[in-house]
Design goal:
Blueprint (H helix, E strand, L loop, with lengths): L7 H12 L17 H19 L4 H13 L8 E3 L2 E8 L2 E10 H4 L7 E5 H8 L3 E8 L6 E8 L5 E7 L4 E2 L5 E5 L2 E6 L2 E5 L15 E6 L8 E5 L6 E8 L5 E8 L5 E7 L2 E4 L6 E7 L2 E6 L13 E5 H5 L10 E2 L2 E2 L1 E5 L5 E8 L4 E7 L3 E7 L7 E4 L7 E7 L5 E7 L6 E6 L4 E7 L9 E9 L5 E9 L10 E4 L14 H8 L4 E5 L9 H5 L7 H16 L8 E6 L1 H12 L6 E5 L18 H4 L5 H10 L14 E6 L8 H12 L4 E6 L10 H20 L1
Helix pairs in contact: 3-7, 3-14
């Protein structure tokens, strides 16, 4: 999931502008003013109540130490990225709390002890500038790979400052590109020209807080000299550039106008101007190969006989040449102009796609089990598919693809199988394991099963259960149920050292529910829980909880629920609709006031997922589940742990604050903690993140194990 920084003045202006349209009085609306003295005093008072409980527990110190050891371990896999021929990595540990950006050679990276060279020390930069810098990434200049646009965040916010950095001198470029803080998307057009969207001033950001005006900026120009090339609308989510290059030297400049979170209009920018491309608006664009766009369509492509969920290659020239070839004309002498690379089956989905010089690599999930596949064009459909080595019952992720050639890094892992990083040649299909994460918890006595629960409407909902091999079906097993259920995102069988060490190793069980709204089984699985059908995701979650109770894996006394962001909304619904099922609910970085979410940053961007409460018919179904409005007097709620970040400029902290305040109105018990840094991820550096997870598991231990 997904406004610029919400300072007190900006938030007050927002509140004033929306107060006239509010349909219900909200006694806690003032808590939406993020950094007002009154709001911060409220936060401090809440933290002062919760910290003695959570950090004062005698188990906190051990849990914090274990979490910090895991998060700061020097023997964890250093996640690689390619920059030209070099391998780069951003690294944090106890000696580098904010982190260092470093590089080595590909050959050295494959050794047990790579020879790393520090390129940028973020701790030193933050100290020198007296700034709270958090790393957000870097975009390096193509072909020469000599300079990069470094992205820095103040405290972990989505809004970033961008500076040009020289890799040879390991210094910021004097008088180079420097873009002040904004939510912005930037691409290199050429060595001395950027194309970007950002807040250019009044009237240039959408209702969601993102830019909708795309401009080009040449070296030496000020922002006021940038040249507009495209303009969306204020009601859009955003407009942004996307510059694609392939191994044959082709460059395609696309302008992507996101009219809502899931619908994007694609246009080509070239010497002729801007040309709208007839690509389905529900599509995910992945790259360019042989001047063909590689995309996954999330809806049927009318006239092309291509169904939703299919991985497609579409020739740029054919797309830009009106009229689009009909389905009878798409096969030409040089091959297929618009054709399927891979069509998933009914229980399959494409999760990730990478593009190398000569291959398309996709991660395909079959019943929530992953496999990496390399696809080669044979001139027409079908493309030749070659499976890359993996493991059974795995989560698979493409980590990085080479700037030049067909090499890529990908990872495989399972609930009980530590992550393996593999280096593959997508052209040959050969791969070797170059790094393996050491075991982080004792899994010898654990087992993994996959089951199905039956939801309210009869739909079968798969879920994984990680448990002790000798677990008794007596209803006494402390069990934590994870889920997300939104935005086409899947819950996968990943190896999570924190869950393993802080929960499983200590006698807890873990269930992971693959509820509707996610992407586990393609577009239809996601669309089944959109807007007016949102309750289906919640019913699916409750069905899994009931299955765990019915089979005596656990009982309400020992069952806990965890979710964050959209999953935090799920937790709010779990608390308000089925308080009888749980004894612990972790509500992290949540959406909770769904009648006002669109007027809080960056809520308007999610109307495509939830609907618009300003429309009476849509408000009618939203208010039925909106957790903030559905807290009722006279109901016994389990003790909830509600947590967020002051610096979260994606999901506004007002959601969590107001929910806690409403619980207080009802004289209901709760714990509330707000981290002053961290952004939406709520953990910008290892020490704070270790504290976060230790407090989570103290709470869960107290509620489910004691």
């Amino acid at each position: 999931m997904l406004m610029l920084r919400s300072g007190a003045l900006a938030a007050l202006a927002l509140l004033a502008s929306t107060a006239a349209t509010a349909q219900d009085a909200d006694p806690h609306q003032s808590l939406e003013v993020v950094e007002s003295p009154a709001s911060l005093a409220w936060v401090a008072a809440q933290n002062a109540k919760s910290l003695p409980v959570l950090q004062g527990d005698p188990r906190y110190a051990r849990l914090h130490a274990d979490a910090l050891t895991l998060l700061s371990a020097t023997d964890r896999i250093a996640a690689p990225t390619f920059v030209g021929q070099a391998v780069f990595n951003f690294w944090q540990d106890q000696d580098h709390v904010r982190g260092v950006w470093r590089r080595t050679t590909l050959a050295s990276y494959q050794t047990a002890a790579p020879a790393w060279e520090t390129v940028l020390d973020l701790d030193a930069l933050a100290k020198a500038e007296g700034a709270n810098w958090i790393w957000k990434g870097a975009l390096c200049r193509p072909k020469t790979h000599d300079r990069c646009l470094v992205e820095l965040s103040n405290g972990g916010k989505d809004a970033i400052e961008i500076r040009e950095f020289d890799l040879a001198s390991k210094a910021f470029v004097q008088d180079g590109f420097r873009l002040p803080e904004s939510k912005q998307t930037v691409e290199w057009l050429d060595a001395d020209t950027l194309i970007l969207t950002r807040n250019w001033g009044a009237g240039t950001t959408t209702d969601s807080g993102y830019g909708f005006v795309v401009k080009t900026l040449k070296r030496g120009q000020g922002l006021d000299q940038a040249v507009e090339v495209f303009r969306g609308q204020k009601s859009d989510v955003s407009a942004r550039p996307n510059v694609l290059r392939d191994g044959q030297g082709n460059r395609v400049v696309l302008l992507e106008r996101a009219t809502d979170f899931f619908h994007t209009q694609y246009s080509l920018l070239d010497a002729r101007g801007v040309t709208r491309l007839p690509i389905p608006e529900r599509s995910d664009l992945h790259g360019l190969i042989d001047n063909r766009l590689v995309l996954t369509i999330q809806e049927d492509w009318a006239g092309q006989k291509l169904s939703a969920g299919t991985l497609v290659a579409a020739d740029v020239n054919a797309l830009a040449r009106p009229p689009l070839p009909s389905s009878e004309q798409i096969v030409v002498s040089t091959g297929c102009s618009i054709c399927a690379i891979f069509k998933p089956g009914p229980r399959q989905t494409i999760d990730q796609v990478g593009v190398t010089d000569h291959r398309v690599v996709a991660v395909v999930y079959d019943n929530v089990r992953g496999q990496a596949m390399s696809f080669q064009s044979q001139g027409e459909w079908p493309w030749k598919a070659t499976p890359l080595p993996g493991i059974d019952n795995a989560a698979v992720a493409i980590v990085a693809t080479a700037d030049e050639g067909d090499q890529l890094f990908y990872s495989v892992e399972g609930f009980l199988t530590p992550t393996q990083l593999k280096l593959a040649d997508a052209a040959s299909g050969q791969a070797a394991t170059v790094k393996t994460l050491p075991a982080r918890f004792d899994a010898a006595k654990l087992a993994v099963d996959q089951h199905e629960a039956v939801s309210k409407d009869g739909t079968k909902i798969p879920y994984f259960l990680v448990h002790a091999k000798d677990q008794k079906a007596d209803g006494a097993n402390p069990t934590l149920l994870f889920a997300y259920g939104g935005f086409n995102l899947s819950k996968l069988p990943i190896y999570d050292p924190l869950v393993g060490k802080l929960w499983l190793e200590r006698g807890g069980s873990l269930a992971v529910a693959n509820i509707r709204g996610g992407g586990e089984f393609g577009p239809a699985w996601h669309e089944a829980a959109l807007k007016q059908n949102r309750q289906r995701a919640y019913d699916d979650y409750f069905a899994v909880a009931e299955a765990l109770i019915t089979t005596k894996v656990t009982s309400p006394r020992h069952l806990g629920a965890y979710g964050r962001s959209n999953g935090g909304l799920l937790m709010g619904v779990a608390l308000t609709q089925r308080p009888d099922l749980w004894n612990a609910v972790v509500v992290e970085s949540p959406l909770l006031d769904m009648l006002r979410y669109t007027v809080l940053p960056a809520g308007a961007s999610w109307i495509g997922e939830y609907g618009d409460p300003a429309i009476p018919a849509e408000r009618a179904y939203i208010e039925k589940y909106s957790p903030y409005q559905n807290l009722k007097p006279g109901v016994k709620y389990p003790l909830a742990y509600i947590t967020t970040s002051t610096k979260d400029d994606r999901v506004h902290p007002g959601h969590a604050r107001k929910f806690a305040a409403r619980l207080a109105d009802l004289n209901q018990p709760y714990l509330y903690f707000e981290n002053t840094d961290g952004g939406h991820a709520n953990g910008a550096e290892p020490v704070a993140n270790a504290r976060r997870w230790a407090m989570h598991y103290v709470y869960l231990t107290r509620q489910l194990m004691d």
